[in-house]
Amino acid sequence: MNSDTEPLCFTENEASSSNLLEFLLLCGKLKETKRKGWVDHHIRYPESVSDHMYRMALFCFCSCPNHLNRDKLVKLALVHDLGESLVGDITPHDGISPEEKNRKEAEAFRKIRDEYLSSCTVGQELYDLWNEYENNLSEEAKFVKQVDKLEMLIQAFEYERGKNDWFDRILFLNAWQPRSTYGPFGFFHELIALHS
User: Fold this and answer.
1) φ/ψ bin of 45: left (φ > 0), alpha (ψ from -120 to 50), beta (otherwise)
2) What span, in angstroms and rounded, lies between the C-alpha atoms of 135 and 92?
3) Fewer CB under 10 Å: which end of the chain, C or N?
4) Where is the HD/PDEase domain (predicted)?
5) How do residues 87-102 score in pLDDT, each as one tens digit?
């Protein structure tokens, strides 16, 4: 994937360190970017995008099916919403078409690749991972898409358990119904049982 002249990761030279710092500061915005769906439903103390991605990554790390690549799952989970550091958390209720959302996020990932991470191949790897996830190009991407929905359901369960003002059982049940062989179905049914 990388050549001898193009480092996979940052070296110790000053320019690379500066780029890495800028990239990490950009990633830090995800700690402050609240998940828009929870904000729209007036949840007190809504989780951040970073919170969501972190638990997704841990879920993938702990529950990888034998036929999938665990490292790939964790990377996809950590990267899939990274573009939101530049474009925010866009939901279906924002009046932005899926095509426009995809265009904005692709543009954000190109900026990350070409400006923040231009001195190493990690930028291209991040872009390729996002594209793989966004377009369901692998079994791992399909699995992580299911984990994305499942993590939201776990968070919804926590909000209900914490006596938040909002919780909609119908939304909970319809948010993610297993539609394929990809996904941890047992966890979905455990959540339903806990919620009942």
Assistant:
1) left
2) 17
3) C
4) 45-162
5) 778 877 788 888 888 8
What does residue 48 show for φ and ψ, rounded to 5 degrees? -95, 165
Round to whole Å and give the CA distance between 167 and 151.
16
In tens, the pLDDT along 43-90 reads 888 889 999 999 999 999 998 889 999 999 999 999 999 998 987 788
Domains of the chain plus CATH, in order, are: 14-195 (1.10.3210.10)
Question: Rounded to whole angstroms, how far apart are CA atoms 161 and 154?
Answer: 11
| CA separation for the pair 51, 31 (Å, rounded) | 7
Nearest to 62 by CA among 128, 124, 154, 196: 154
Pairwise CA distance, residues 132 & 170, whole Å? 31
Q: Are 169 and 195 in contact (CB under 8 A)?
A: yes
